[in-house]
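Practice problem: MoxR-like ATPase
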Amino acid sequence: MTATVNHHVEALTPQHVQGFAQLAARLADNIGAVVLGKPQVVRLALTALFAQGHVLLEDVPGVGKTTLARAMAATIRGQWRRIQFTPDLLPADVSGVTIFNQATRGFEFHPGPVFANVVIADEINRASPKTQSALLEVMEERTVTVDGVRHPVPRPFLVVATQNPVEMDGTYRLPEAQLDRFLVKLSVGYPSEAVEIEVLRGATMRSPEALEAVADTNMLGQMVAMAQRVHIADPLYAYSVRLAAATRNHPHVRVGVSPRGVIALTRAACAYALIEGRGFVLPEDLKTLLEPVFAHRILLSSDAQLRGVTSADVLRDAVQQVPVPLPAGHQPPPG
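Answer key — structure tokens:
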């Protein structure tokens, strides 16, 4: 678990911020040409990309989860691999395997599909927990250990996983440790009537394979580095910590947001601010990202689940309880 430190780094110039926002808009437009009517979902997915986080897309079949994942991969000029998770998939099918070479009389490592810049883990919750755990190390440390030898994966590295709701047949619930490694969990949702008609009109013409890459891995690496230079004031660090503490102390919560979750929120807020054309974070950025970053990290008590309480309800309570930090010199209204 590594924190992004924003202190004592060179400040971003307005030209840097404007250039970042323009390129981010081009990436979003490119993906939006295939994923119609979901600009905020695309923006949040790009936020995770620039914050060096991973994306979990959960929704019912047929709403465009895999299309979004493939469109993100096609927009970046780099290596991408797709892993179709099934009940009989083995951990070695994901990470790779060491094989004895008769010609050289030695063991050779054959990398698995996880060795790519963008890895699409399709229907990740259809695989067994043992296979799901093959992604734990690589998602956090960007390395794969096979037979005691560590192998680094290419950088930048992004996992875009899709899953169907856990109530559906043939699915295994993702363990909490793995959920915590996803920066954001997003739901694509059903399109509006107008968008669905537009999809039908051009169903055969819009395909992720037809997209042209807008950025390469070098450019993406520079954008990631810029996101780490965004200014976030100390009161906003405190605000993030207090929001997480509010989830831990909530009466309906069994396990609240971890410190990794707080780091994820501040990292995502820095990237989101740049996408919005700012070199500094506002409290509104943290509020916008609170549910996508925090909701999947909260474990509700059994009683809360029976009452129909959701993670979103807990986060709404946290936002109401924790006062928003005000700029220096501003006093809250009396009463």
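Discussion: Residues 1-7, 329-335 have pLDDT under 50 and may be disordered. Students who identified this feature from the tokens alone can consider the problem solved.
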